[in-house]
Amino acid sequence: MSTITEVFGSNVFDDRVMRERLPKETYKALQRTIKDGHSLDINAATVVANAMKDWAIEKGATHFTHWFQPMTGISAEKHDSFISPTGDGKIIMEFSGKELIQGEPDASSFPSGGLRATFEARGYTAWDPTSYAFIKDGVLCIPTAFCSYGGEALDKKTPLLRSMQAINKQALRVLKLFGNDDVKSVKTTVGPEQEYFLVDKDVYDKRKDLIYTGRTLFGAKPPKGQELEDHYFGIIKPRVQAFMKDLNEELWKLGILAKTEHNEVAPAQHELAPIFTTTNIAADHNQLTMEIMQKVAQKHGMVCLLHEKPFDGVNGSGKHNNWSISTDTGVNLLNPGETPYENAQFLTFLCAVIKAVDEYQDMLRVSVASAGNDHRLGANEAPPAVVSMFLGTELTEILEAIENDAPYDSKEKEILKIGVHTLPKFPKDTTDRNRTSPFAFTGNKFEFRMLGSSSSVSCTNVVLNTAVAEELSQFADILEKADDFEAALHELIKKTIVDHKRIIFNGNGYDDKWIEEAEKRGLLNLKSTPDCLPYSLHEKNMKLFTKHKVYTETEMRSRYEILSENYSKVINIEALTMLDMAKKDILPSVSLYAHELSDTIVAKQACGDVDCSYEQDLLKKVSKLTGTAYKKVAALQDAVLKAKDITDNTELARFSKDYLFAAMSELRITVDELETCVAAEYWPYPSYGELLFSVK
Ligand code: ADP
Ligand code: MG
Questions:
Q1: What pLDDT, on a 0 to 100 scale, did the predictor assign at position 431?
Q2: N or C: less crowded end of the chain, CB within 10 Å?
Q3: What local confidence, expressed as pLDDT, does residue 675 receive?
Q4: Positive or negative, the Cα torsion across 118, 120, 122, 123?
Q5: Interval 319-361: pLDDT, tens
Q6: Measured from the CB, is residue 322 less than 6 Å from ligand 1?
Q7: What's the gap in Å between 440 CA and the centre of ligand 2?
Q8: Which ligand has the shortest distance to the CA of 437?
Q9: Which residues in the chain show pLDDT less than 70?
Q10: What pLDDT, on the 0 to 100 scale, is given for residue 30?
């Protein structure tokens, strides 16, 4: 048995391998590329490619691929083998510098939102040397960005890298004002906590809805759900434990720092958290984690559900995006410091985040929008659809003291002055952490909790990085001109608190009163995807992303089209699946059951004056519900047909929500009631109870 330290990163072409296998000069050149973004000349790239190929072949790889993240949200790869004919009927294994740096996948079928007409189908992939190459299933995977020949981003990684550059640039300006001349670069870091469900494969295979849509479209509540909360952090079942052990090992091989795992609130729900890392790498790793989770589950005879809401009435799955900013000198800029100077710098960055979240709450909401996540947000479990920030009592009191020119607690006499006073220590308390807040300060980082479990972390971090970059640039503009830096900073922080404190809310985010209060404060409550997506086209948001060169206007519009279209497609597939299930399986089964009941009644009545009230009452009830379900099927069918005539994406998304989804919800109510009346052996699908408790 090899040890964990041997296993860790064993399938990654990481720094250790590079040092070992590259000539010193090439290693140094590559380091410069990784650290400072200098381009790598083709000769050096050829040396790197060769070393990568030899290493990969030794590990059993035969193919290579440019691994990228198109706007579908899942990763894509097209495999090419290393073999190259030598002309004498033999082959050699080859991988050139050019093949490492740039690829050209035939990408005409990836969504581009009109960015790339099909006749100009070509897009190219470009190596991201900051994310290490790795081997997966015998294939050398090169992490890449994916662009059109016109330079437009066709993926989720390119804008993410651009947003990291934007925040780097603006944060450096601010840090310079604080005298940090040694800092050369600033990076954002992310640790995404990933929730998921595990169900038994045999049970899963009997549910068309899970197979086609990832969630149950019908299903009556089981007698036992999550009420007892006996699953949360409970004992992990042996099958799940074996899965987690395997999963960890697979992730470790890829250098993914899988660290904690536990049961979640709902039965069959679990969570995995890695140790945080640089944002683009965290995004790559999270994509890989989701993929490997599904593969390893299959090996264990289970299916890993990453859908945001696989089961109605049971908690859904999210992804918590833990986010911070740190310098290349190792300082976490969201860590309150020890000295007045460190505190002032911390408060400046904190205020930039507060202002960013308030001003771009709409874009943060857009960044987590999907048909699946609509079931979670605002559904009394995950954070509400209203974006607000939790800072905790101590920090809020400090901000109030600054705002009111007051001492920060009753024992203090002096007015709190930035740059003069040391802030009190904030206890890094994990016990009273507000779990209902969408955006919580957790001691030295922020935790954004609105992401859906299946979504890529890229979009959210693009918004966060860019919005904070904008606020930092505004701060730098003011402070660079100031004669008295400390006074100007004090004023700036005070003004930011006054202007943006409406976004701060430390109470219970699930409370209906908060939703009313939020409305009074003028905060947005964008309940569904069609409600929020149009905000991404607002001038304010266009300006933000174009100013910082993260998205062009065309790229923003293309993303809007893709997201709207994707939403309607998902609803349409769900509607069709429901119709299929109702027409082919549920109604016929119920009809058979009614037949059985009426046969029983006839047989009983043949015996004379026998009590048939059970069968008769049940038959009446089942028949009535069947009639209602039949009408609702017709209504849904009608809505599906109407949707077909709508060509405009915005209009279709709206229609899908207001009519299709509404008709689906209606049908579900009746069918779920039917399920409670029909004998188990007649019901065509495994019940919620069987699904949720299928893994022993
Ligand atoms: P929990 O939220 O479950 O109590 P932790 O607070 O320990 O757990 O961490 C949650 C996640 O936050 C982990 O993935 C961790 O690596 C990540 N994290 C910790 N510090 C930072 C940071 N500075 N930047 C980004 N993520 C971080
Ligand atoms: Mg957490």
A1: 41
A2: N
A3: 97
A4: negative
A5: 999 999 999 999 999 998 777 777 899 999 999 999 999 999 9
A6: yes
A7: 9
A8: 2
A9: 1-2, 106-108, 114-122, 225-233, 378, 380-382, 409-417, 419-433
A10: 94
3-class secondary-structure state, position 127: strand
Strand-pair category, 83-85 with 79-81: unpaired
β-partners of residue 271 are 195, 262
Specify the long-range contacts of residues 666-671, CB closer than 8 Å, at least 24 apart: 666/632, 666/635, 666/636, 667/578, 667/582, 667/629, 667/632, 667/633, 667/635, 667/636, 668/217, 668/218, 668/312, 668/578, 670/625, 670/628, 670/629, 670/632, 671/218, 671/582, 671/586, 671/629
Question: What does the DSSP assignment read for 569-620?
Answer: HHHHHHHHHHHHIIIIIIHHHHHHHHHHHHHHHHHHHHTSS---HHHHHHHH
Q: What's the full length of the chain, in residues?
A: 696
- Give the pLDDT confidence score for residue 119 in this predicted structure: 46
Q: Is 674 in the pocket of ligand 1 (CB under 6 A)?
A: no
Q: Check: CB of residue 546 under 8 Å from CB of residue 537.
A: no
- With a 6 Å cutoff on the Cβ, whether 335 touches ligand 1 is no
Which residue is listed with tokens 């605002």?
378
Q: Determine the residue of 190, 286, 445 to mutate for testing ligand 1's pocket, defined as the one with the most ligand atoms within 8 A of the Cβ atom.
A: 445
Instruction: Indicate if ligand 1 lies below 6 Å from the C-beta of 323.
Output: yes
How much distance in Å is there from the Cα of 386 to the middle of ligand 1? Answer: 23
Closest ligand, as measured to the CA of 188? 1
Looking at residue 276, its pLDDT comes to 97
Nearest atom of ligand 1 to the alpha carbon of 276: 16
The DSSP 8-state label assigned to residue 153 in this structure reads B
- Look at residue 410 in the predicted model and tell me its pLDDT: 57
Q: Is residue 530 a contact partner of residue 567, using CB atoms and an 8 Å limit?
A: yes
What pLDDT shows up at residue 432? 52
Residue 123: predicted pLDDT: 81
Which residue pairs from 328-336 have beta carbons closer than 8 angstroms and sit at least 24 positions apart in sequence?
Answer: 328/183, 328/184, 328/185, 328/186, 328/187, 329/180, 329/182, 329/183, 331/183, 332/444, 332/445, 333/171, 333/186, 334/441, 334/444, 334/445, 334/446, 335/444, 336/423, 336/425, 336/426, 336/444
At 339 the pLDDT is 73
Look at ligand 1, atom 19, and give the residue with the nearest C-alpha: 276
d(CA 505, CA 508): 8
- Convert 251-266 to b/e letters by CB count within 10 Å (16 or more is b): bbbbbbbbeebebbeb
d(CA 135, CA 399) in angstroms, rounded, equals 49
461 lines ligand 1 (CB under 6 A): no
* Beta carbon of 694 within 6 Å of any ligand 1 atom: no
